[in-house]
Amino acid sequence: MEKKFDVLIVGTGLAGLFTALNIDQRLSVAIISKTQIKFSNSSLAQGGIACEYNDNVELHSLHVEDTLKAGAYLNDELAVRFLVNNAYQSVKKLISFGVEFDIDADNRFLVTKEGGHSRNRIFHSGGDATGKNVTNTLIAHLYKRPNITFIENTMAVDLIVENNLVGGCTVLENDLEYYPIYAKKTVLATGGIGSVYGSTTNDLNATGDGIGIAYRANAKISHMEFVQFHPTALYSEKHPSRQRFLISEAMRGEGAYLINVENERFMSKYHELKELAPRDIVSQAIYREMYDTWTDHVYLDTRHLDPKYLEKRFPTIFARCKEEGYILGLDLIPVAPCEHFLCGGIETDIYAKTSLLNLYAVGETANTNVHGANRLASNSLLECLVFASTCAEDIEKTIDKDQWIKPINIKEETKYNYNYKPIRKKIGDYMDEHVGIVRNTEGLKLTLSVVEDIVNNLQKYPNLTQNYYETFNLAITSYLITKQALTRKESIGCHLRIK
Ligand SMILES: Cc1cc2nc3c(=O)[nH]c(=O)nc-3n(C[C@H](O)[C@H](O)[C@H](O)COP(=O)(O)OP(=O)(O)OC[C@H]3O[C@@H](n4cnc5c(N)ncnc54)[C@H](O)[C@@H]3O)c2cc1C
């Protein structure tokens, strides 16, 4: 079996969906998902989308400056300007597709503030259900398009490459059928890497597949050391899980404080913006407080805020905390940092073009270099939107020159049942211990040698199963994070070196 499309998009998060929606309807497009279309990190997003909904140059400059400052000025300023200047049109497009952002009684958008933002500029929908509302609306539109074919439960395994020219992917459908999908243009929109670590806010299907796939095809991958740890993931004693429930930064935007187990509000010791300092600073401060007080959590304090307002503004978070036995506005909520977002990734230009011909990368798997050393809150959904549009624009402009590449020989690899869990656990344990919020040379070197061995061993014993390829991708991703973290000797952004 083989399939052929003009464009193949791998991933049904916001980046993949918005790319598909922006592609000219005369082109045939396949969009594949490892699980079901509706599952992605995008659908989990709570806080919202950063956007100055206007043409005001000064306000755009402030958003640019906030982004550069959060990224420790390691960002590409031109890419940041491009992101910010195109936010208005992107959000307008979402509204034209029917996305309903929250408004007040006078029909004005209700915009909130998050860490590192100098103004209220975060658009949200359904209170804290922005990701779900946006992705569901886009999926409904895509179902109506005859040029779009959704293929679920199908994992992209490897790129089909001939002399640096990409012509689609090999895929594994239902962990069973292995076949090529040929495409003139291929877009990797595979999202994050959360499962590399022991705990994460991500969907656990985030196994760094785009990074592994691109690495095996020799695409350029950069800024992998910049892994963002979200400061306030729920610390759940009742339901301990590797996937941790996120308590949105917007809660601090609405006035919540952080206190340590000794009941002290501590953020003023670390930054003038206190709880609304950029994420790297807040996570590092919490890490320090946990260390100093011998605990593994701090508290989010909302007891000075109105529970009724909190329930209306954050319905999802309110309900989840209630399940744990905590009422927002009355109880302290235990929180601790964990892995949240990869700032780097597959290197692209502002048209989402990678170092390989006819291969694009969009969304969290890409490094457009808008985030630099640390992402400004709510800039990632915006990144998905802006660069999905330019990706579709470039595809449309250039596809007429392209042809499908010559069919390849698909060789059936061995397939056997093997338990990769211990390997995955080992990777997570080393990454948590040595390549987390605080890093030192010795720990990085030790981890590098461990994960390099794992990569080499996996390479020696290929196995045509989803479990194998996910584990291989996790190992490659952890190898790249650790290797690039070792090379970056200074502390900057979310990369903190103590030795
Ligand atoms: C809990 C949470 C809250 C967040 N809140 C916000 C927020 O408020 N604002 C903001 O800007 N950002 C937020 N973020 C970050 C943001 O949601 C993500 O960066 C963004 O959604 C990434 O979108 P994406 O399309 O690149 O990837 P994703 O949405 O993760 O989608 C990836 C897709 O690729 C598929 N896939 C992966 N590998 C393969 C493969 N090998 N083959 C086939 N399919 C594959 C997956 O199944 C999935 O469909 C949040 C993240 C989390 C986890």
In the CATH scheme, the class of the largest domain would be Alpha Beta
The level of helicity is 25-40%
What is the end-to-end distance? 53 Å
Q: In the CATH hierarchy, what is the architecture of the largest domain at level 2? A: 3-Layer(bba) Sandwich
Shape: globular
The name CATH uses for the topology of the largest domain is FAD/NAD(P)-binding domain
The secondary-structure class comes to alpha/beta
Small molecules (ligands, ions, cofactors) in the structure? flavin-adenine dinucleotide
Instruction: Please give the domain count.
Output: 3
Q: Assess the beta-strand content as a share of residues.
A: 15-25%
Oligomer description: single chain
Major sheet attributes: 7 strands, mixed
Radius of gyration, whole Å: 22 Å
Parts with pLDDT < 50 across at least 5 consecutive residues: none
Tally the beta strands.
19
The helix count comes to 14
For the record, what is the CATH homologous superfamily label of the largest domain?
A: FAD/NAD(P)-binding domain
On the 0 to 100 scale, the average pLDDT is 96
